[in-house]
Amino acid sequence: MKKLLSTIFLVSSLVSYAQEFQIITLGSNGGVIDGDISGYLVRNKNEENFIALDAGTILPGIKAGLEKNNFKGITIPKDTEWSDTGYIFREKIKGYLISHGHLDHISGLVISSTEDTKKDIYGLKSTIETLKNNVFNWKLWPNFTNEGEGFKLNQYTYQELNPSESKNINNTTLKVSAFPLSHSNYESTMFLIENNGEYLAYYGDVGPDIIENSNGLEESFKIIGPLIKEKKIKAIMIESSFDNSKEDKGLFGHLSPKWINKEFEVLEKYSGKGSLKNLNVVITHIKPSLKKNDNMREKIKKELLEDNKYGVKYYFPVQGESLEF
Length: 325
Ligand SMILES: [Zn+2]
Ligand SMILES: [Zn+2]
Hints:
Elements: H1 2-18, E1 21-27, E2 39-44, E3 50-55, H2 59-67, H3 84-92, E4 93-97, H4 107-112, E5 119-124, H5 125-135, E6 156-161, E7 167-168, E8 175-183, E9 186-195, E10 198-203, H6 209-212, H7 216-229, E11 233-239, H8 257-271, E12 280-284, H9 296-306, E13 313-315, E14 322-324
Parallel strand pairs: 3-4, 4-5, 5-6, 10-11, 11-12, 12-13
Antiparallel strand pairs: 1-2, 1-14, 2-3, 7-8, 8-9, 9-10
Helix pairs in contact: 2-3, 7-8
GO molecular function: 3',5'-cyclic-nucleotide phosphodiesterase activity
InterPro entries: Pdiesterase2 (IPR000396), RibonucZ/Hydroxyglut_hydro (IPR036866)
Protein name: 3',5'-cyclic-nucleotide phosphodiesterase
């Protein structure tokens, strides 16, 4: 009996150990369709507080997540004056990690800011500067932050991240380190989220190193490669904005299925041969087509699944969908 109990304990602890991150997709498109663009909520499953990875869309994503019953285990007090969507937005998102200042990664944050609560905005210096100089400056939008032009409403506190330095994310048990990427010669970011020695790697918009004339992706692979080898990376989230029909000169700092494979070849150099097999890879930032009978999501999915050289496990989550790793 004692042995049985200890076996049950071991199995149950392994099961909970196996799924420590929850990711809810707030917006899955790389632009075009307002209300469903680049944003993800992430939490340590043992905690109720989320952080947002990019914030192109927030409220419609929370609403879709609630409709799909994907906020199970999140406490919403019965006597709150706020709607469920409002309560999760205001009270359960504790900070925003912004990969770069492009509109499709910040529009939800900006437009909902008038109803938001006091939170932190994390990013590399270049992202914070963009928000400071070009967004929260009273010209594009009131200054809801603690720095920059004019009267400061002090709702958001900028938290500048130094490259590769680990920082606690306030009001969560998560930590983040940021690594610069090249996105059409503009700086973007890979965020490495740590949860008790396990990791999630979130790539903002990024182009192939060769085309960008950069080593941003390769440098990031030097970091996550050894972690993949040690099975400490639970998932990577990376973009495929276009399908393979997009010519290299039209990529403008983005990836497509064939380029993901080429970059995985570089990643495997640092993670070890065969180590990418069954790695969880979440595809983000698909740019939808408005042409009749042209389903970009299905095309990209088909191309990645039919040429899955490294045997990774692909996910293509849509708005409101929850993934656990
Ligand atoms: Zn984008
Ligand atoms: Zn971008």
